Amino acid sequence: MKNPIRLEALRFLISGALNTAATYAIYLALLQVLGYVAAYTITYLCGILLAYILNVRYVFRVRRSGRGLALFSLVYIFQYLVGLAVLRLAVSLLGVPETLALLASIAVTLPVTFLLSRYVLKPLTPPPLPYADDARTQ
Predict the structure, then answer these.
(1) DSSP code of 122?
(2) Which of 10, 72, 79, 135, by CA, is between 20 and 30 Å from 43?
(3) Which residue, 113, 114, 83, 117, is CA-closest to 101?
(4) pLDDT tens, 63-73?
C-alpha cells in the first residue's frame, strides 16, 4: 500500500508549481495596468484562492467549506509572515545574498505550509474501533 501522506506531498508540490505558474502570469498581466505592489497583493490573494481549490480538489481530496477557506487563508498569511521573517534573517543575520535568500524562505515554509494545510483541510481523526467480532479472532 502506498503512503497517503507521501502522495499528498507529491500532489502538493505539483499543485504548488501550477499555482506558481498561474499566479506569475496573473502578476505579469496586472503589471500592465497596476503598480507592482498592487499587482503583487492581488496576485497573492488569487494565489490563496487557487491554492485552496487545488488543495481541496486535488491534493487532499476533501469537501470545500467556508471554514476551510478561512483557515486555509490564515495558513497562507502565516506562510507569508514566516517567509518574510526567514528572508530578513537570512539576509541581515546570516549574510545570504538577496538573490538566494528566497530559497531559504521556501525551504522553511514549504513543509510548514504542507502540514498546516493538511491539518486545516483534513484534520486528524482517530482510527475506527475494531468490531467486537474482530477482537475475538485475534
Answers:
(1) S
(2) 10
(3) 83
(4) 999 999 999 99
